[in-house]
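Propose amino acids for all 702 sites.
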C-alpha cells in the first residue's frame, strides 16, 4: 500500500513523514525529474507495512513549473510508480481556510483521503476550537488532529491509515458544471482518460508540464483550448472562488475562533509592521546580523581557547613521549596539526548554525525572504531566489538544489551562478583566523567588537557581490519569461530549543566528519610532499647546515629553524609553491598561501588545515605553538617582512569571498545545469573577480 503525504509548505509535512517512518527512509529522485523523492516504510497497528511518499509542498495542484508538476504527475498518472492508494493531506490547524483549498482539490481526484490537522497545539493556544467530528462529517473523510513535532496522536494517525476505505468516499466541494460547459467537460474527460473529471481540468492548465502525457495528447489539449476559446486563467479563478465559498460553509459549522485567536494574529501583524517595513525592516535585519557576528566572536572565544590548549598539549605530550621519526612526525605534524587547525572553529560554526535554526524556527527567516524580494526584483531576480541565497550562508550545495522550484529559466541560472558568492560556513574558519591575526579585539562605542564588525563586513561583501553580479547577468542573459513569488509568512513562534540544539549537533557532526576525512587525507598528502623532496637538494641542505661554518655562526635553535625552513622550500610541495608564487605575490601571498589556495579547492576550510600542516613541518620538533602564533610570526624569506599584515589578510579574505573553491559546488552546478558550460563560466568569472578584487585590496592597504 502506497500513502502519499500532500500539503502546503510549512505545515509540518516532512515532520509527520519523519514521525511515521523514523529511520526507515531513503532519498532518491522522481523518475525523469531532478526533484528529491523521500520514501519510507511504516508499520501499522495491525502489523502490516506501508510505503510513505513525501511529495513536494505546494499551495495548489495547478503547476507553474516542472518541479511543481511532480505532485500532479504522481496523483493523476495511475501508471506512475509513486501513484498512491491513499492520500494524507496535512493542514495547519491554525490556518484551515487556506489549507483546505489544496485539500478540496486533492479530494476531487477520487483517491481515498485522510485529513491530518497538524499543529493542533498552536490552534489550542490561539483558542481556535475545531469540532473534528463535525469537520469529518462535512468533508466525508477521517480527520485526525495531530502535533507531528511533539509526536501527539501519531498512533491515532497510523490507525486511521489502517482503517482507510479502499475507495474514495469524500464529498466534492465544487461543482464543475457551474463554470464548465458540459460539452467541454465531456471532451476533457475523454482526453484526460482519468477516473476524475477534475483531473481533466487540471491537465487542461498543466498538460505541457506533466511528464506522463505523450506529445500527441498535449497537442490535442492545445487544440481543444483553441476550438472552444477556453480562458484557462478565468476558469481557475472561478473554480478557486467556488472552493473558498464551500470552505467557508464548512468552517462555519466546524470551527470557532475566539478573540484571543484574532489577538495572536494581531501581535504577528504588529511585529511585521516593523520587521517587514521598507526601512525599519532592513534596519532590524542589520541589527540582528550585527548581534549574530558579535556573538560568534564573543561567545566562541573561551571554548576556542580550550580547544587550542588541548591540541597544543597533545602535540607537546606526543613530542615528549613518542619516539622521533617519520611516523611520529606524520601523526603530530600532519594529522593532529591539520585536525587541530580546523576543529578549533567548531564553536563558531555551532553558534552560526544555532542562530540560523532560531531564525527559521521563529518564522523570521520567511520575513527575510519577503524583505529581500524587493531588492532581488530590482536586479532582475525572482523573489524565489532569496531562499537559495539565504541558504547559501550555510552551504551553497543544498541552496543551488533549492533553486529547482524557480520556474523561470533565466532567474534560475542567475541564482545558481551567484549563490556561491554568499559567504558559506566553510569560509567562516578562514575569516575568523585571519581577522584574529590582524584586527584588534577591541570595543567600538563601548559594545561593538571590532572583530565582529570585520566578520559582518565580509558576509555583507558576499551579499553585495551576489546582487551586483546578478544585475550584470540580467543585462547579458535575455529572456521573455515572467516570474512570480509566493511567500508564506507564518505566525511568530518561540524557538524549539531541542530542535535548535539538534540542528547545531547535526551540522557540527557533518562538518567534523565530512571535512575531517578531507582534512586527514590532504594532511597526509601534504606532510609527505612537505617532508620529502629531490634527494640531491635535501642532501645539499643537510650538508650546508652540518658544516662547521654554520655551526659556529648560529645558535643551535636558530640553526634548526633555518634548516627546517630551507628543507620545506626544497620539498616537493615547496617546489610547486615556488612555481606559482610569482602569480600570487602581487596579491601579498607567499608560496605557502599558494599551496593552501590549491588544496582548499577541495573545500575552503581546508585552508586552515593546510597552513597548520605546512607550518608544523617547517618548525623544529620541539615547537608546540598554535597555528595562529606560527602564522603571526611568519615572514617572507627574501625581505624579512611579516607575511600576515592587514593588507595581506584582507586581500586573502576577499579572495576567498569571491573564488569558486569547492569541488562539491562545481559538481552540483554541473548536475543542475546538465553540462559543463555554466560551471566553467562560473569558475572563470569568480576566479577572475577574486584575483582582481584581491589585487586591488592589497595595493590599497599595503
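Proposal:
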Amino acid at each position: 500500500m502506497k500513502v502519499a503525504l500532500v500539503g502546503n509548505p510549512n505545515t509540518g509535512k516532512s515532520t509527520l513523514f519523519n514521525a511515521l517512518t523514523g529511520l526507515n527512509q531513503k532519498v532518491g529522485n522522481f523518475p525523469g525529474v531532478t526533484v528529491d523523492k523521500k520514501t519510507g516504510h511504516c508499520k501499522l497497528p495491525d502489523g502490516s507495512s506501508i510505503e510513505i511518499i513525501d511529495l513536494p509542498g505546494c499551495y495548489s495542484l495547478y503547476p507553474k513549473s516542472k518541479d511543481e508538476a511532480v505532485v500532479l504527475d504522481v496523483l493523476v498518472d495511475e501508471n506512475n510508480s509513486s501513484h498512491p492508494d491513499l492520500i494524507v493531506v496535512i493542514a495547519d490547524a491554525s490556518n484551515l481556510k487556506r489549507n483546505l483549498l489544496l485539500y478540496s482539490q486533492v479530494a476531487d481526484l477520487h483517491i481515498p483521503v485522510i485529513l491530518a490537522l497538524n499543529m493542533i497545539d498552536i490552534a489550542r493556544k490561539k483558542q481556535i476550537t475545531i469540532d473534528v467530528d463535525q469537520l469529518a462529517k462535512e468533508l466525508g473523510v477521517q480527520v485526525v488532529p495531530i502535533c507531528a513535532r511533539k509526536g501527539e496522536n501519531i498512533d491515532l494517525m497510523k490507525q486511521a491509515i489502517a482503517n482507510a476505505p479502499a475507495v474514495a468516499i469524500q464529498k466534492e466541494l465544487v461543482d464543475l458544471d457551474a463554470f464548465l460547459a458540459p460539452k467541454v467537460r465531456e471532451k476533457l474527460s475523454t482526453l484526460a482518460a482519468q477516473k476524475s473529471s477534475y483531473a481533466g481540468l487540471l491537465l487542461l492548465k498543466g498538460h505541457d508540464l506533466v511528464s506522463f502525457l505523450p506529445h500527441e495528447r498535449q497537442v490535442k489539449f492545445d487544440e481543444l483550448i483553441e476550438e472552444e476559446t477556453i480562458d484557462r486563467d478565468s476558469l481557475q479563478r472561478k473554480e478557486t472562488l467556488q472552493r473558498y465559498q464551500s470552505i467557508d460553509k464548512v468552517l462555519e459549522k466546524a470551527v470557532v475562533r475566539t478573540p484571543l485567536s484574532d489577538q495572536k494574529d494581531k501581535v504577528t501583524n504588529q511585529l511585521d509592521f516593523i520587521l517587514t517595513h521598507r526601512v525599519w525592516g532592513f534596519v532590524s535585519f542589520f541589527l540582528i546580523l550585527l548581534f549574530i557576528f558579535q556573538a560568534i566572536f564573543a561567545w566562541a572565544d573561551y571554548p576556542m581557547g580550550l580547544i587550542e590548549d588541548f591540541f597544543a598539549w597533545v602535540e607537546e605530550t606526543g613530542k615528549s613521549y613518542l619516539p622521533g621519526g617519520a611516523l611520529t612526525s606524520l601523526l603530530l605534524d600532519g594529522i593532529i596539526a591539520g585536525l587541530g587547525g580546523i576543529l578549533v572553529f567548531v564553536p563558531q560554526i555551532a553558534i552560526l548554525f544555532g542562530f540560523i535554526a532560531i531564525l527559521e524556527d521563529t518564522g523570521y527567516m520567511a520575513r527575510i525572504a519577503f524583505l529581500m524580494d524587493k531588492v532581488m526584483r530590482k536586479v532582475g531576480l525572482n523573489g524565489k531566489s532569496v531562499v537559495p541565497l539565504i541558504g547559501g550562508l550555510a552551504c551553497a550545495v543544498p541552496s543551488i538544489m533549492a533553486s529547482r522550484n524557480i520556474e523561470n529559466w533565466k532567474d534560475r541560472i542567475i541564482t545558481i551562478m551567484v549563490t556561491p558568492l554568499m559567504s558559506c560556513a566553510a569560509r567562516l574558519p578562514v575569516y575568523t583566523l585571519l581577522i584574529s591575526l590582524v584586527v584588534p579585539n577591541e570595543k567600538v562605542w563601548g559594545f561593538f567588537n571590532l572583530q565582529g564588525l570585520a566578520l559582518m563586513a565580509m558576509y555583507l561583501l558576499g551579499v553585495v557581490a551576489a546582487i551586483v553580479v546578478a544585475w550584470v547577468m540580467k543585462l547579458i542573459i535575455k529572456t521573455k519569461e515572467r516570474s512570480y513569488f509566493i511567500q508564506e509568512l507564518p505566525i511568530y513562534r518561540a524557538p524549539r530549543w531541542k530542535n535548535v540544539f539538534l540542528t547545531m549537533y547535526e551540522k557540527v557532526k557533518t562538518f567534523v566528519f565530512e571535512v575531517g576525512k578531507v582534512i586527514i587525507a590532504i594532511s597526509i598528502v601534504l606532510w609527505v610532499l612537505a617532508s620529502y623532496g629531490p634527494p640531491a637538494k635535501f642532501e645539499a641542505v643537510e650538508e650546508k647546515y652540518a658544516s662547521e661554518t654554520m655551526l659556529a655562526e648560529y645558535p643551535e635553535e636558530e640553526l634548526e629553524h633555518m634548516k627546517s625552513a630551507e628543507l620545506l622550500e626544497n620539498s616537493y610541495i615547496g617546489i610547486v609553491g615556488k612555481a606559482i608564487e610569482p602569480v600570487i605575490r602581487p596579491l601579498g601571498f607567499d608560496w605557502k598561501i599558494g599551496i593552501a589556495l590549491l588544496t582548499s579547492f577541495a573545500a575552503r576550510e581546508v585552508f586552515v588545515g593546510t597552513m597548520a600542516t605546512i607550518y608544523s613541518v617547517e618548525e623544529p620538533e620541539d615547537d608546540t605553538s598554535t597555528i595562529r602564533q606560527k602564522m603571526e610570526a611568519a615572514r617572507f624569506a627574501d625581505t624579512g617582512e611579516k607575511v600576515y599584515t592587514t593588507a595581506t589578510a584582507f586581500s586573502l579574505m576577499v579572495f576567498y569571498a569571491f573564488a569558486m573553491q569547492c569541488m562539491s559546488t562545481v559538481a552540483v552546478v554541473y548536475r543542475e545545469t546538465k553540462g559543463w558550460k555554466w560551471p566553467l563560466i562560473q569558475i572563470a568569472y569568480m576566479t577572475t573577480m577574486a584575483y582582481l578584487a584581491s589585487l586591488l585590496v592589497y595595493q590599497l592597504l599595503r
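The radius of gyration is 30 Å. Confidence is low (pLDDT under 50) at residues 27-34.
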